Amino acid sequence: MPRLTAAAALQLVLLLSAVPAQYFISRWSGSTAAQRYHATTRMFRIWKEWRTSYLNGTAWMDWASQQVSKVQSFIGLGQEEQMAQESLAIETMMYDNDLGFFGASKTARSPRPPYVFLRVGEVVMERRGHMVGVVVSWDPELRAPPEWVDRMYSNYEGSKAENTPHYKVLFSGPGPSSVMVGYLPQTQLERITGMRPDIPTLENYFTHFDGERFVMQPWLREIYPEDVKEDI
């Protein structure tokens, strides 16, 4: 019995399918010239749609990317990178920004509200971690991006913190030349005296340490004029 090769099998399949295909095309395209013209036009349009969508590699890549994004969003993946980028941007704003967040406003803090207890240049201790730092600016109330507030405070705590004075405080970092910046509510800080912490970059804000607190640079005195009273 002769063996049936792959090529011969393919030819046989094409021959057997030719008649049904011809019958289908004739039924689908119609009997008149106009019907055949419209059917042919429709076939070319369908082919073009398939070629630009189902047979197009770029379209498949776009579709796959959309599906992956949907799956990542559903299971919570893909959001961590975005959150990390947002967190990095906000942490950068802690050092300086033009929006007035985190005590960065250059508007003079005068008159000084009586409920603002701490002054720029004073040495403070953070109550929870007992870290010692120096106040370099303050706001009479919380001024921070909403996403930072949501991350740092619950809904109840956030409503209370909005009207609480907040202070920008410099702390020593883990390295000899590193600095950590905090924006803390008044309730978490305690004034301490007789201690001079060695924190890098303090010379950018202060001229010297007078034994109790740091004395502000002239540009900083212009922003906090009423914090100078105890310097005299």
Provide an overview of this structure:
With 232 residues, the protein is of the alpha+beta class. It is built from 7 helices and 7 strands. The chain has helices at residues 6-29, 33-52, 57-75, 79-95, 146-152, 155-161, 218-223; strands at 123-126, 132-139, 166-172, 179-185, 189-191, 206-209, 214-216. The strands form 2 sheets. Strands 4-3-2-1-5 form a 5-stranded antiparallel beta sheet, with no helix packed on it. The protein has a two-stranded antiparallel ribbon with strand order 6-7. The chain is elongated. The N and C termini lie far apart (116 Å). Mean pLDDT is 76; it is low at 70-83.
Briefly say what this structure is.
It is built from 7 helices and 7 strands, in the order H-H-H-H-E-E-H-H-E-E-E-E-E-H. With 232 residues, the chain is α+β, with helices and mostly antiparallel strands.
SSE diagram, text form:
Layout: H1 6-29, H2 33-52, H3 57-75, H4 79-95, E1 123-126, E2 132-139, H5 146-152, H6 155-161, E3 166-172, E4 179-185, E5 189-191, E6 206-209, E7 214-216, H7 218-223
Antiparallel strand pairs: 1-2, 1-5, 2-3, 3-4, 6-7
Number of separate strands:
7
The description of the largest β-sheet is:
5 strands, antiparallel
The strands making up the biggest β-sheet line up spatially as: 4-3-2-1-5
C-alpha Rg, in Å?
36 Å
Distance between the termini: 116 Å
Helix content percent band: 40-55%
Uncertain segments are 70-83
Q: Would you tell me the structural class of the helices and strands?
A: alpha+beta
Which descriptors would you attach to this protein?
about 230 residues; alpha+beta; two-stranded antiparallel ribbon; 7 strands; about 15% strand
